[in-house]
Amino acid sequence: MAVGIKDVARVAEVSPATVSRVLSGRSVDPAMQERVLAAVKSTGYRPNLAARRLRSQHTNTIGLIVADIRNPFFTAVSRAIENLATARGMRVILCNTDEDPAKEAGYLELMHEERVTGVIFAPCRQWVEKAERLEPGFPVVLIDRSLPSAGLDSVLLDNESMAAELVAHLHAQGHRRIAGLFGAASSTGIERRVGFEQAARKLGLAATAVEMPHATEAAQRVVTELLSGPVRPDALVASNGVMLLTVLRALRGLGLEAPTDIALAGFDNNDWMEFVGGGLSVIEQPVEEIGRTAMTMLLDRLDHPDAPARKVVLAGRLISRGSSGPRASAAPQPIGA
Amino acid sequence: MAVGIKDVARVAEVSPATVSRVLSGRSVDPAMQERVLAAVKSTGYRPNLAARRLRSQHTNTIGLIVADIRNPFFTAVSRAIENLATARGMRVILCNTDEDPAKEAGYLELMHEERVTGVIFAPCRQWVEKAERLEPGFPVVLIDRSLPSAGLDSVLLDNESMAAELVAHLHAQGHRRIAGLFGAASSTGIERRVGFEQAARKLGLAATAVEMPHATEAAQRVVTELLSGPVRPDALVASNGVMLLTVLRALRGLGLEAPTDIALAGFDNNDWMEFVGGGLSVIEQPVEEIGRTAMTMLLDRLDHPDAPARKVVLAGRLISRGSSGPRASAAPQPIGA
DNA sequence: ATAACGTTAGAAAACGTTTTCTCACACTCA
DNA sequence: TGAGTGTGAGAAAACGTTTTCTAACGTTAT
């Protein structure tokens, strides 16, 4: 039923080896080449990728393991990476862990079994404790989240600086009781929290940072609790776009409105943010560039397996909305190596 | 370097066939089974999926080809499908066509080369004209968009009825000059437009339906033009969530505000929609159920290759927000076979 | 003119599994 | 007791490619 390379060879009256050579673009007699191409067309031959990968021992496949595909940040980065990959003739296996360490481990195992060329990975914090346990066996580039001491290439946002910029922005707008909500499942939340706290201290603000759980209802409870305390904050910073939504929901539950009752700012520039509550001030991440950089680093790593690990830190861009804050900006650019 | 099944066999002092049998859970002597398992662990053996797929001739892989991964509707459906698939031990190859017929054809070709078990597919309209050219060679289930006369299984929203419900909703709120914006790249936009026009006619409204191009700037121009005409509509219906955003952007450009200056409604219940302009009324699609149904139909099709094609039409749910419209609802349920 | 070399294409091996085939063994039943 | 039957494990074939190996040929240089 299925037509294989031998069938093509028979029709073209050449050997299977020659067909293979034509298809992989190596030099063959033009006359033969023509016969082969004609035979391919007439038979409707399609190479069997499994067989090809088995024999050639390279899969031209990269794994992309993200923490939450519903987060527009990750879909944007995924799209960028996929486009770059297919342009180079590589396939992408996209995996979504839902921040679940078990799924994460499972997908890593799958990457092994697929014998992927390399992996781009946004890990949750389970590996921080047992970083040495993560012996990839293939090149890995971390995105969005770092793993201290894992010795892996990574491309990150300059989280601390950006969080500080957000605090400064709110401070400049006159807010003094700023609270921050940060995830603890990834290094990203932690770094942003550190930047937030340092900036607040430097400005002499008594800012409170709170840990956000990943589950939505629990997260909402946390926000509600924070806002129901004795002195309500006059500004809120959320660790990412998804949490910003949770905050909005909690505010609504309390009958509060942003930015009238409380200022709101955060990370990730989702496309709806300009339309909500007079516009939300956020740190926009250079998603396209994050994808491009990760891909480049992965390919570099394939060429130079033993080069020292690199860490690329990209700047974000403050998008000031709502009140009359300063219209600050900075083109995304590497600031470290 | 790499450890194969033969190495495991040698360590366990059994034949490779036995190792294979243990790993695929067939009955073997318990003592041997134990030796094999121990050997697998001690050697760190990982099966080579390419080899396995080549020999066994089934890939346990389904392709999922969507039109726009940035559209939350598709990410939600993808997530549902992926969860179901992995629960059944199947892999998913996720492809994003960006509504580009060339990409679409390329990915379909890839599906062939991967020898996928089946494909779940949201096609753009290129196939309508040349439906017979789409000879899959594997089971295909269409989602979100239908291909008349292609004889394929499909699961769709009841687009016409839902569009009509939206019109009725706006009419009940007192709006009389309703305009609709519909994409022409897929059957979905067309069906919604038909439902919109029929409902308007039935209500005696002089509703105008306009075609939205896919490119964002062009789309925005269309909306701006529509709103700058001699008599401005007092309500706008958008064909999906992405277009709703385009509309919001165009409104802003004209200095108009929803729902004060104009009412806004559409399809897809994205998570931010309750927070924008007092809340947008939308038709919520049963994304989870769409994914589940598509998966079920695909598996059914594998069991019964020659059964007649089925078309499942699911109801959406009107989520009434903003003004004081009726709080209508209907649980998603099949209404057709 | 002949040896040495480079190029080209076919023959055959190899990739790492699963599956078929074969055989040995134990058990049942007449 | 002996033939028939069922079970379980190893040997070997098979999956569809790519790659190595080998041989033939044409070209150049001596």
From TrEMBL, chains A, B:
CDD domains named in the record: HTH_LacI
InterPro entries hit by this protein: HTH_LacI, LacI/GalR-like_sensor, Lambda_DNA-bd_dom_sf, Peripla_BP_I
GO terms for MF: DNA binding
Residues annotated as domain HTH lacI-type: 3-56
Domain of life: Bacteria
Protein keywords: DNA-binding, Transcription, Transcription regulation
Protein's name according to its UniProt entry: LacI family DNA-binding transcriptional regulator
